[in-house]
Amino acid sequence: MSETPPAPDTRRTESAAPQTRRRVNRREQILRTAADVFATQGFHNTSLADIAAMLDITPAGVLHHFGSKTDLLTAVLELRDDTEPAPEGGAMLDHLVTTAERNSERPGTTRLYAVLSAESATEGHPAQGWFRDRYTVLRREVEDAILDRLGPEQRGAAGAPGPGGHSPAGAAAAAVIAVMDGLQVQWLLDPGAVDMAQVTDTVIDALVAALARGE
Prior knowledge:
The chain is mainly alpha-helical. The protein has ten helices and no strands.
């Protein structure tokens, strides 16, 4: 007669699960709090002690989840970024209008991006590389979307580099991004003064139409 094997000891697994959840929840709390403080005070004017005090923990508790203040900043920026990829082709332009509309529904996130993107232009800012890379990719994606929206005859001229090495479509892409970033500042200062989605849509249509006319 064979013996019934002993039941596996699940106590260690069961006890580990709540601890894992607590670590995840604490990490998310730190991220959300840091995002709020960075948006209000900027990166340089915020210390780990400021963030820790709002959570009733020590600065060492913050560093337990993020190795440094710079690591925390990077995580905050990645948290802010859209989780879903932007569509390719001309649909990217519609996505920009939708993004502008969505930004008007999340003032904290919009303020965070506006503050940190401007602050990153200062010498030695830890987010400078992140924003530089982001703008590089975004300009390329918007340029491709503009070219996709144009007809075959206009596409060649709009995509050809000019005297300064930049194509008309590339210049239009930079203009669209500049308008969107500038609108965020205007909207944050006076939300009722501008409709970010409407203005973005208007500027995109005007630039595409100008390129279509060969201007």
